[in-house]
Specification:
Layout (H helix, E strand, L loop, with lengths): L4 H8 L1 H8 L3 H29 L1 H21 L6 H27 L5 H9 L1 H17 L4 H22 L10 H6 L4 H35 L3 H27 L6 H18 L4 H13 L5 H12 L3 H29 L2 H35 L2
Helix pairs in contact: 1-3, 1-7, 1-10, 3-5, 3-15, 4-5, 4-8, 5-6, 5-15, 6-11, 6-14, 7-8, 7-11, 10-11, 10-13, 10-14, 10-15, 10-16, 11-13, 11-14, 12-13, 12-16, 14-15, 15-16
Length: 380
């Protein structure tokens, strides 16, 4: 949560940042894109760096980078361009934390509870957007946006000693890393990972547009600033609930595949069309669907990748997360320009098209996933 909180706080507090820093929708898109661009560039190498650092050094380092980003935004942001710097630092934290946390889950959590664990971990993202949404009426409109980031930095600082007391003393992310890191990935596994990365790129592209622009576009749709923040919070609750609940279902053999991911992205596409309709009621309902279903798939995707690619989980995470980060980079950057130049309905309709394309790519990944499962079954 600390790793992604900087970028979603920027999106949630966009109205206040626009007023104080002169930030336009294009500038917001550029700042958010910087976060995901750094995450994309560092994702693959972070998978190998994580294995060398281990949990007790790597996780506090990632949280420390998140602290630097939050404190930097709070105290050293005289112009919106500085947001690019600090969100770049947060992007490094985000790239590092995923292979560490995925390795921890694979090694420390029983197979029967892994999908739930991945869903719970990925619920950090809507929890961050919930925090961002609630911070608008509670903090941003009272003590100001800078102090909101300062309070979030205190949360990060508090976490470091807690993590040092609770993390396993071993280095689980190194599990078979020496052998697996030297072995080339099987060809069919690489095909599956590439298809999943494409689906993740399209899905993340539309999803991060939702995270970045829901509040600012809600104001244009007729909500006041406090109401827009509360809408972001309510939609985030749907995302928080969806991810672990999907994991519980997958652990019981219900829907734990890329086909489920495809259905969720398709539902998210319909939610985005509701946001494009121009009706405040449809906008609110569409936001809930877009967050809960259209953005609730990534914990399940992590689970499918880990189950399909074990013992190459750390390397596989780096590959598929690269797709997620590329989509997260290009989506806000391109849609920031769209929202600056065209009515909001155009942007949300294009986002719906991206979600539909992500659903199609997920179906391709599902076919490859089935082939890998059949090969594994035939091999014993």
């Amino acid at each position: 949560m600390v790793a992604v909180l900087p970028v979603f706080l920027v999106g949630g507090l966009a109205v206040q940042l626009e007023q104080d820093l002169g930030m336009t929708p294009s500038a917001l898109g550029a700042a958010v894109a910087a976060f995901w661009a750094v995450s994309a560039l560092l994702s693959a190498p972070a998978g190998f760096v994580a294995g060398g650092l281990g949990l007790r050094r790597g996780v506090p380092l990632a949280v420390g980078l998140g602290f630097v980003a939050l404190a930097g935004i709070a105290f050293v942001t005289p112009h919106w361009a500085w947001l690019i710097v600090w969100l770049g630092v947060a992007g490094a934290a985000n790239a590092l934390i995923h292979p560490l946390s995925n390795g921890l889950i694979v090694d420390q959590v029983a197979v029967r509870n892994r999908a739930f664990s991945f869903g719970l971990k990925q619920a950090a993202i809507p929890t961050a957007t919930l925090t961002a949404g609630l911070s608008v009426p509670v903090f941003a409109l009272t003590v100001g946006w800078a102090w909101t980031f300062a309070l979030a930095a205190l949360l990060a600082a508090f976490l470091v000693p807690v993590l040092l007391r609770t993390l396993p003393r071993g280095a689980p992310v190194r599990h078979r890393s020496g052998k697996a890191a030297r072995e080339p990935l099987p060809r069919r596994l690489k095909q599956f990972l590439f298809a999943t990365a494409v689906a993740s790129a399209l899905g993340a592209g539309q999803a991060n547009v939702v995270g970045a622009f829901t509040v600012s576009m809600a104001v244009q749709a007729g909500f006041d600033a406090a109401g827009a923040g509360l809408l972001l919070g309510a939609a985030s609750v749907a995302g928080i609930l969806a991810r672990p609940l999907l994991g519980i279902a997958a652990d019981r053999g219900i829907g734990g595949s890329m086909a489920t991911v495809a259905m969720m992205m398709g539902a998210g596409s319909l939610g985005l069309l509701g946001m494009a309709s121009g009706s405040t009621v449809a906008y609110a309902a569409g936001a809930v669907v877009a967050f809960g279903l259209g953005w609730g798939w990534n914990g399940l995707a992590h689970y499918v990748v880990s189950r399909t690619s074990h013992p190459f989980t750390v390397q596989a995470t780096g590959i598929t997360q690269s797709g997620t980060y590329i989509g997260g980079t290009l989506g806000p950057l391109l849609f920031g320009v769209v929202f600056s130049q065209f009515p909001p309905a155009v942007g949300w309709t294009l986002a719906a098209a991206a979600a539909a394309a992500g659903a199609a790519a997920s179906l391709v990944a599902f076919r490859l996933e089935k082939g890998l499962r059949e090969d594994a079954a035939a091999g014993g």
